[in-house]
Amino acid sequence: MLSIAGRLSVGALGLSLALIVSIAWGTALFYLAARLGVDTKVRLTWIDAAHVYVGLVGGVLILAKISRVRFRYKVAGVSEVIPWQRWISWSLLILYAAVFVSGVLALLPIHGRLYEDLLNFHLLSSVWAVAPTTWHVWHYRRRAAPYLIRLLPHGRTLRYWAGISLAVVPVVLVISNSRALSQLPQVMGGAAWSQTALNGSYLDRITTTPDGMLVAAGDALYVSRDGTVWTQIDIPGVPLPPSATPRPGVHQHGAPTGKNLGIALAVVGNSIYVGTDNGLYRTDNQTGLLRQVGFNGATVNAIAVDPSNSRSIWVGASTGLLHSLDGGTTWSAPEAGLSKPKAVSAIGFAGDRIYASDSTGVFEASGTLSDWRRVSNMPEVVDLTPSPDGSRLYATSATQGVQFLENGTWRSTDSLASPHQAHAGHENHPEVVSLAPIDGRLYAVGTSFGVSASADDGQTWSQLGGGLETVTPSQVINYQNTLLAATSNGVYRFPLASGTPASLNWWLAVLSAVVVSGSAGVMLAGFDRVPWWGSRRRHDRTS
Fold first, then answer.
1. Contacts of 375 (CB under 8 A, 6+ apart)
2. Which of 31, 200, 376, 396 is such that its CA lies 20 to 30 A from the CA of 65?
3. What is the bridge-based pairing of β-strands 490-495 and 194-197?
4. Cβ neighbours of 334 (radius 10 Å)
5. Kind and range of the H or E element at 184?
6. Given a cut of 80, is residue 244 above it in pLDDT?
């Protein structure tokens, strides 16, 4: 009596494994496209689910084939086995094991450089397996031919394709309830940036008002109710040449300008404050003309409004750090403790605490808001951003990347080099100009890749799509489930797709489907003589 393993067809198992591996390679092409910054046009969470499922089913097929052919030169029931083909078969076993193990490890909470190396190893081992797999399949094509040449339902051909379908069909259910398993889908990768508004405008800042209006500042102040139609409010300054004309789709208020760029922006109720290279400007109705409210001749680099008191405004300018308690009517200069008050480049609130940075580090104001104490020596901090709940303060440096303050302790994020990138090397990319914490993810703006994203508190970063190669982004915000970026050439958008993390129950369901459907598919497609099928045919012959 033949054992269960002995009933398995080597040709059927080999062909099945080749088909499953081909599906895995096919889904992997979407990851390669995303790494190149190309819009895949397909949600990567779906590709994640399909790729992981077929990879696990491939593991079932590998175990089945090992149980059938063993590790000997001679394979029971198979004639004309060439030794060098057995060597190729064993090498494929090693390569597939490397692909499978590295793929499983990539789904574990591994971060930073180790995660990058693991992904590269998974990619390289998959590529290395292509040539020997192709040669191996071609060499044994005659064993696989009986399962392919008969396209109409007939005998074991029908059984074979029914078995393959049984093993693969559950992937439809997995995709319909897909989860973001690998890092690219976790940071909403897979799409590309596209220009959406204000073509030709230089923008440095973008934000929203409490009632949902978009506000951007750069070569002018721009406001929009829907992100499509914008109103331009010019910043008083030197007029542009007479040939300058308003751009299509942009309504212009005021005289055209060419200087006094908006390099800082804050919204207080219906009032908008714009910091320029020639003072501080304000409009009180969101669509009216800007008027100067101080700092004439000074460059205003930072504006911050106390979230608990909208009349408490802080301004960092080339003339020093100033504070107003009456909405900008009068100003005081609480600079004690700052090393270089005239070099303040960022101001931010975290909860009820206020922080400011100059070129030498980050400082926290005392309870009286008149004295400052140093809390970090991180130099050249250009942006201070609180987390949505105020428990963290993120500091981005022009020379040292990103750090964050939590419970009185500063922590460094990892290298901003991306494991999903079209570039070589291990660049640190410290030239971050701003950071946005959105929905549990971090988006670092201004890196060599345009925008880098992290889903694990900055331990691992990924390039967030292409499309920004010819522009310089400076800030991103979340607007109606879309990232909007202020760039040197208008507003760019990146679509965000919501994703649900994989739960233990989800994993148990997927693994159960793999074991049950994969094993049933192997039995149906791989048996030369299915027990009930073979018994009936033997009975027919003897009766």
1. 355, 361, 362, 363, 364, 405, 410
2. 31
3. antiparallel
4. 20
5. helix 183-186
6. no
Pairing of strands 250-253, 230-233: parallel
Q: How far apart are CA 311 and CA 369, in angstroms?
A: 15
Helix pair angle (155-168, 44-69), 10° resolution: 130
For 120, residues 6+ apart whose C-beta sits below 8 A from its C-beta are: 419
Per-residue pLDDT of 277-321, as tens digits, reads 889 998 887 777 888 888 888 899 999 988 888 888 999 999 999
Helix pair 10-35, 155-168: axis angle to 10 deg: 40
d(CA 536, CA 526): 18
Interatomic CA distance for residues 312 and 305, integer angstroms: 6
- Sign of the CA dihedral 191, 196, 199, 205? negative
Residue type, 542: T
DSSP structure string for 332-395? B---BT-S-GGG--EEEEETTEEEEEETTEEEEE-TTSSBEEEEE---SEEEEEE-TTSSEEEE
Amino acid 522 reads V
φ, ψ for residue 508, nearest 5 deg: -60, -40
Six token digits for residue 451: 């925008």
- Select from 487, 205, 442 the least CA-distant residue to 346: 205
Model pLDDT for residues 468-490, shown as the tens digit of each residue:
888 989 999 999 889 999 999 99
Length in residues, the chain: 543
Please give the C-alpha separations between residue 17 and each of 11, 96, 111, 518, in angstroms, as whole numbers.
10, 11, 31, 11
The pLDDT, as a whole number, for residue 458 is: 85
> Domain limits of the chain?
4-183+501-542
Name 404's bridge partners: 394, 411
Res. 210 pLDDT band, cuts 50 70 90: confident
Average pLDDT over residues 72-98: 72
CA distances from 406 to 263, 410, 415, 442, 532 (A): 28, 6, 19, 15, 66
Structure tokens at 72: 């000997």
Is 453 in contact with 496 (CB distance < 8 Å)? no
Q: How many CA atoms lie within 13 A of 3 on its CB side?
A: 8
